[in-house]
Fold these 2 entries.
Entry 1:
Amino acid sequence: MLQEIAWLVSLALMILVAIGFTFVAIHSGKRADDYTPMQVRAYRLRSKLFWVLVLVLGPVMVYNLRDLPYSAGHARAAASGAPAMVIEAKGYQWRWELSRNSVGVGQPVEFHVTSADINHGFAIYDAELHLVAQTQAMPGYTNKLNYTFSKKGTYRVLCLEYCGIAHHNMMTEIKVTDL
Amino acid sequence: MAHHNYIAKPDHGAELSVLAYLVTAGAVLLLMMTFGLLMRLEQAQLINMGPMWFYQLMTLHGAGMVGIAGMAGAAIMWHFLRQYVDLSTPVFVANLALFLVGVGMILGSVLLGNFHGAWTFLYPMPAKSMGMWSQGAAAMFMGGLLVIGVGFLLMHLDVARAIIARYGNFSRALGWPQLFGHDDGEAPAPTVVASAMVTIVNVIGLVAGASILTMMLVNLYVPGFAIDALLAKGLIYFFGHVFINATIYMAVIAVYEILPRYTQRPWKANKVFLASWTASTLMVLFIFPHHLLMDFAFPTWMLVMGHIIGYMNTFPILIVTGYGALMVVFRSGIRWDMASKLLFISLFGWAAGAMPAFIDGTITVNYVMHNTQWVPGHFHIYLLLGMVAMVFGFMYYLGKAHQADEDTLLDRIAFWGFTSGTLGFTLSFLYAGRESVARRYAVHLPQWIPYDRIGSLFAALVVLSSLLFIARFLLRLGQAGRNHSRAPLAHGSVAV
């Protein structure tokens, strides 16, 4: 799960930053009067740190550009080769209108997402309430969201762009059954 | 244990106008923090105010916090910058006056007119309220933001005038002759470099913000004047991103100015420093598409640009400013008091908060975390434990009566209360984001409530600690305006 990775990596990086600050705070009391040699050593360490960051973050940054959700082929790798089923999805204050509410497992779906009034966020949550895919629903634009449901169950569509007093009630369901 | 001899060096007290900014910022901050706590308590189902009140408080909390961050940041920048350039006090005061007028309009719009379109006022929501607020209330809210923006624009134009009068042009104020040529050690002070950067980005950002606000105000009364929703969103997030980031870049001037006084070590504007500020100037202007990663219709190359700059943006924060602070403090014999502790922890907050932030700016991660509580999770770290901690550090610095004064036990407890409270509060948000909890929901699903309850507890700790910080500042207002030696300068050390 991507969320779990994001959480663990963030936590690890924040702990690393905390270790750096704690180390310096602990070693801040006794003054080294000659700052210059320390500066030279510190600048040298900083150059190393710079390259470590480049070498670690660079590949991660590039790797994460390889399968963007914007392409029509996104999320179809697991599919059985079936053509994508198109579902029209339109947001209204404060409800969703889907051209159909049931999908087969493994069936690639292309949601054509738009809005009849103001901005909404079309977010698909699985049966365990984990966010699995999303795009914005904007008046005047149609965003194509490709997703293949891999498990049976009742998925929910929540609104993830604040749209007024009943924003939190703007939900609908998608039933995922055997093909 | 080391003992030091300290030499007293008189330091400028704050102008009355700076104090007025800080008092305003402190008062509004406390009120907005209380609104934030009420929102968390509502989500935790420990109180019951209803969705209307929740979204009204959410609108005030967002707009108010962005506004006071701007005011407090401006106070810090103005206080230190006027020691290098000749700034206009009337223009600075005019910004405060316009801010108060704008706040009055926003409060009226929300509390009397029931406007609750969020501080992001995404087009065309202000005009399409489903009968929940009037056209007048929407106009009052956007007009209030416009008035505040005009005030800030005036202030930045005055800063631009003063910088050009002293340094000739912005490239010299950014230290480009030293950056791209021979570093003769004569680059402008970090305060000037930071102020030049903030002025460049904020003038552009404020003009973009004022443009979309004006367009939307026209649209409100002439619906035939339609606006492209994606263009509107782009302009709003461009302005919003630049403005809120500029508050940190203004507040960090307190760290550049005060930490060296505590450590008796210079924070020099060397080539790396200058390069990082020039890079930040460009990155702050071009990173904004990372707010639109889920707008698939936005040009893909711009979304990829947002993703890439998100990663690059961590470099100046981590290895220039954060690392610079560590260098200045390491084995410095620093005297730890409330001011130095808050300023030191503020750079931790900024650097630590940048970690979940750049991860959120990764397109594939954003796909499953955009507009979840992961987002308030990361921005509360670098704004609350970063930017706001810088402001509190500055307040303690100004209010210090005598250089050797000890902090009370209560202040020291409040420091740890604020630090642990902010960490607990933000980690509960981040964890909720991991669990896909939606942000900006008045009513939470039953599965989400435990995180809200934990978050509420820590939020209460933050509010209480901040109340003490601000009360202490108000009690020391008289001292804050006087010229005297605030930060002791360590001058040699004797081991005993």
Entry 2:
Amino acid sequence: MIEGKLYDGMTAHPHDVRVSVADGKLELEQDGGWSDSVDAALLKRRDAPAGKLRLGRSDLAGWRLLVPAEAEAELAPLLGRPERYGRWIDRIGLVPALVAGGVITASVVGIGYLAPHWIAPHVPMSWERNVGTAIVGDFGELKCRDPKGQKALEDLVERVSPGATKGPDAIKVAALNVPIFNAAALPGGYIVVFKPAITETDADALAGVIAHEIGHVRRRHVTEALIREFGIGALIRLFAGGVGANAEQIVALSYTRDNETQADSDAIVALKRANISPKPTGELFERLSKDSGEAPGFSAEFLQSHPLSGKRAHRFEASVDPKAHYQPALSQPEWDALSEICRKTPEQK
Amino acid sequence: MNELASVDAAEELPSIQFTGTMREYLPIAATNLLLTIVTLFVYRSWAKARERQYLWSRTRFIDDELEWTGTGKEMFVGFIVVAVLLGLVWLTFNFGLPAIALRFGPLAGVGALLTFYIVGMFLYGLARFRGLRYRLSRTWWRGIRGGSNDPGWDYGRKAIGYYLAGFLLFGFLYPWAQAKLWNERWNKMSFGPLEFEAHMTSDDTKGPFFAFLAALIVGNVVIGLFTNPNVIVFGPGLPRLVVPILAYVAIGATYLNYIAAYYRAAAEWTRIGDIEFRLNAEFVDWLKFFLATIGLAIITLGLAFAVYEFRKWRFITSHMEAYGTVDVDRLTQSQTHAPREAEGFLDVLDVGAF
């Protein structure tokens, strides 16, 4: 016989009851002669204070029976196992649930990481152009508009990637009058080169940088980075045409290490095909990676979007063919024209 | 004969007693944390249910422990519904507003933005009200639960006015608006047949609030002066470091003092039936709690957040007292509608319990 306290759910008045088990039912009785029996199917464990067992009924909302925890042994046949972590987890056990959950979570995160790489090539180029055009327009005041310089810049693109400036998926290259060393591929086949990337390099190194950016465009790394960084929102934006997209964020897109390596490989191949020496590009990368410690600000922006390492510089330098007769990327008059591309454009910020 | 459960100041045991221990709670917190991580936060709702089941079942009011009957499932459903709703709001904000501004001009855009904020205030107020109603409806004591028959639309409407008033006039009406809102929501709540009555005023909170406001303004000026390299009035050296830190401490301390005054007044001016409440947590108690929270977070590299709810509950319940008598025969079952939806907004916005 178990002594218990019963609340009937009608009032907060406690009733002292004696509790027993008979025929798969819970029998309750009181001194005055009152008795009741509750079917086991209706009984439900409720979370209980320390040292007690608290039972409820599925058909009476406030009905509660409190008995000492020691009654567990006697009442156990009527009651299910106590719920601990939640029904599903209790069924398979905590450790298997943790392992299963861990595997699922790792897969989801893995897919989330890899998905942009799989999806990007299937995003129509026209969507990406929508965004590119919406964001950059014609670059406004920033763009350096010297016609001879622009012609030389486009010639340089043609030199490393013949036919690249023509057709619906043409590369649109622009020099921007911004005093930061940077070059970037933007959505929609736009490639921008900031002024110091022209004035503080030479034609061959710039050819390498541009070939690298063309690699990002052609391999859809820009789309991939957009999806990676802005998720589903970027896909919607790609489709809708740039509402809410922020030009600064887009310029600051960062690529994965694999993407960078791939763009480097493309650039090395392109330089070889164009018969341009990869050495100046390697030297530029080396200089930039060393500069980062000494002169922050000069190359910080470029490094942010193109993490450089000595290793990457070496790859370019290692691809130098000592027997080759390299041709300069641009003729001297062309390079002179390109160097002057921003001459008439007032410098921004 | 009526049975009375009474609490007198003379009684030995405190009227509200928390018997939970960190030892019992740690396994709950640890498994909750692990399961929440490996389920990409899906388990969060079930974790909350477990956490509350434990905290409620270790909280004794007069002579019986509370019981939490909310389930992880209902909280998860509430969370999903609201997450979808907030997703739509986000889309409106990101795409709808620029579109309106582009099509109908900037004035229409500003109008749409204001509407958006006002709707936001309404939803926030509604969320607070419904969250409280939900919590009471899932809180049982001696087989009786709380609740409210008010759906909270009215509260949401009034909240817009009080929030606006609170921000206008440099926050001078803020303590008044906060007290009014406390009364507005608690006066609609009940436990069993008993209605809560709240008559909080800003009499006891406006002093501490204005002290905080003054500290905020003066502190910011001081910080601005001492951290501005162009101002050399105070010279370089130690004061440049120490004075701004002191200003931050002053702002934080006056804010904590306001919080202490607010909850003290809220408890004092809220009653149910014959029961009155006191929260005897003074500024120093809050300060200790706050410093311990920061200290623990630093020592455990942030892991202590897993036991924060426990510590908060223990802090409140150990400083809370109740006086009066409950006529348990008259404390009949609540006839309020038990809401099906859970905390939803409140959960997503992560607002505090009361």
